Amino acid sequence: MRRLAHEVLPPLAGIAGLIVVWAVIAATTSSASIPSPLAVWDALVDGLRDGTIQEAALKTLIRLAFSFVVAVVLGTGLGVLLALNEFARRAIRPLIVALQITPFVAWVPLAVVWFGVSERAVVFVAIVGSFPAMALATLQAIRQVPPLYERAGRTLGARGWTLYRKIVVPAALPGMMAGLQQAWGFAWKALMAGELIVVAAGATGLGHLLAGQEHDVTALLATLAVIVAIGVAVDYVVFGQLDRRIRRRRGLLIES
Amino acid sequence: MSDATATMTPPSREAGVPKLSVDALTVERTLANGERIVAAQDVSFDIATGEFVCLLGPSGCGKTSILNVLAGLDRPSAGRALLDGEPIEGPGPDRAVLFQDPALFPWLSVRANVELALELIGVDGDERRERGRAALASVGLSDVLDVQPHELSAGMRQRAALARALACDPSVVLGDEPFGVLDAQTRELLQNEVQRVWMGSGGRTTFLFISHNVREAVLLADRVLVMSARPGRLLEEFRIHAPRPRDLDDVLVGRVVSEIHALMLREQERPGA
Predict the structure, then answer these.
(1) Radius of gyration of chain A (CA)
(2) Which of B6, B123, B151, B217 has the greatest CB tally within 10 Å of its CB?
(3) Please, what is the Cα angle at A20 between A15 and A23, to 5 degrees?
(4) Distance between CA B53 and CA B206 in Å, rounded?
(5) Which residues have CB under 8 Å from B249's CB, separation 6+?
(6) Chain A hits for B99, Cβ within 8 Å
(7) Helix, strand or coil for residue B97?
């Protein structure tokens, strides 16, 4: 009960407050560009009933999962390499930082030139937009591993790659979680930008759906609500829980 | 040798190849502010197979630096460190190290910590599980196999570290004040544990412990090597012949403790020290 009051109630109150404010604004302006929450809800139900939202969401989530996995594998590998080798670190880290601070939307035209107006272009933008965060977080997390673990591991006979796989990377995991969460956020944003701009004929996805709803504000807001809901759900449920589990296991979580 | 007296002898060389040997060892360390200090200077001693030796000295006398060189974690600035007559090139599972911090891996359960050590020396499957269980049982931790390290008391954590060190059947156990931060009672329990383990090894396992606690050193060791303050040099060597398992109430143990205390006090008050 306490947990319910502490963790569930406040965000629900926030959402309810937002809807109330929105309803009041919609009622007082009665402008076509600000539909009421109820109208948007109806549009959402319609979209779910005829399956367009599910189809688009599924396609988007598959692209997202693929981009995210590639970005995490690439980013982790690169982060470990940079932690291992000082020359590589000095040579490559500035490039990754540059990539990290470049707005991912800037990659869209190049992606289109390379991959055409296609799904591959969208996925490319999502990967380029998200792997730098993972690489930098991995590097940072590894460099913050207490030297004692590495020393203990070496006295137990771990060396080279085994030392990394069995000791350094697991020790760095709580720090890498931040990168994972960031990479997911960037992948999600970049994917949306990509889908919104690069619309191939017949392609489905939440961003594509959004792109086709410029003249139907009600449907547009319904799609937007789905995008927000997916983002929040993954962030809270998947990463929040994973992070808590890792921390609890190591005694790093202070339960209030 | 059974005359049960403490005798003072100058550092001596044993016959045959010693298990561990440091020869004119000098270790320098760089402090965080960049200053180089000589931690230990021109230290030489041999340790025979199966011996239990304690390196005793005030804080900062370079005991840990010497131990780290023997563990293969650090390199000496001058002199040599030998294992079975061969230069020590790096760390290895033949020399288990007990750090002051138990250094258990927090992402693994107690059992998995021990099993990882076995995995790293190539022990697989059922044998790994069995040896892990046996090692933890031998230090009285059978009930907490699947518990995470942070859920144990400090004493139990150090016990688990001891089990992890011993599971791989090392020929040398190096202890860097492993009981330094424990309360007196837990410390005594673990000292007894270590004595028992050492006696049970039947002269196969060589122990080198570092301590700044005179009573602990006399309780545990066949030989106590007393070091001066920094830069650490070897001052004296005490052979302890008291019967084991030893007790701090033992008259002989008490006598050697006072003798070493007196020596360390003299050294502290020596002009220029």
Answers:
(1) 22
(2) B217
(3) 125
(4) 8
(5) none
(6) 148, 151-152
(7) strand
Residues of chain B with Cβ-Cβ distance to A245 below 8 Å are none
Q: Mind telling me how many Å the CA of A20 is from chain B's nearest CA?
A: 46
Its ipTM equals: 0.86
Write b or e for each residue in B216-232: b if 16 or more Cβ atoms lie within 10 A of its Cβ, otherwise e: bbbbbbbbbbbbbbbbb
Q: Do B103 and A149 touch (CB under 8 A)?
A: yes
- Encode A114-146 in three state secondary structure: HHCCCHHHHHHHHHHHHHHHHHHHHHHHHHCCC
Strand-strand pairing, B20-30 and B36-47: antiparallel
What residue has token string 């992070």? A243
Contact between residue B57 and residue B212 where contact means Cβ atoms under 8 Å apart: yes
Q: Tens of pLDDT along A61-87? A: 999 999 999 999 999 999 999 999 999
Tokens of A96: 């990754």
Per DSSP, B232 falls in state: B
Work out the pLDDT band at B231, boundaries 50, 70, 90.
confident
Confidence at residue A240, expressed as pLDDT on a 0 to 100 scale: 85
Q: H-type helices in chain A, by residue range? A: 2-3, 9-29, 37-50, 52-84, 86-101, 108-115, 119-143, 147-155, 160-163, 169-197, 206-211, 217-233, 241-250
And the tokens for A213? 């709803």
Q: How many A×B Cβ pairs under 8 Å?
A: 69
As a whole number of angstroms, the distance between CA B46 and CA B29 comes to: 23
Which neighbouring-strand residues pair with B30?
A: B36
Q: Is B169 left (phi over 0), alpha (psi -120 to 50) or beta?
A: left
Q: Per the structure block, which two tokens stand in for B108? A: 């693994």
Searching chain A, which residue's CA lies closest to the CA of residue B98? A152
A50-64, B150-164, B186-200: least confident range: B186-200
Given a contact cutoff of 8 angstroms between Cβ atoms, the answer to whether B91 and B73 are in contact is yes
Residue A175 CB burial class (10 angstroms; 0-12, 13-18, ≥19): middle
Whether the full predicted model's pTM is greater than 0.90, yes or no, is no
**What are the tens digits of pLDDT across the range A193-232?**
999 998 888 888 999 888 888 888 999 999 999 999 999 8
How close A228 gets to chain B, by Cα (Å)? 34
Q: Please write the tens of the pLDDT for every residue from A127-161.
A: 999 999 999 999 999 999 999 999 999 999 998 88
- Tell me the two tokens of residue B31: 């402090």
Please list, residue by residue across B118-133, b when 16 or more beta carbons sit within 10 angstroms of its beta carbon and e when fewer do.
Answer: bbbbebeeeebeebbb
Q: How far is CA B229 from the centre of its chain?
A: 19
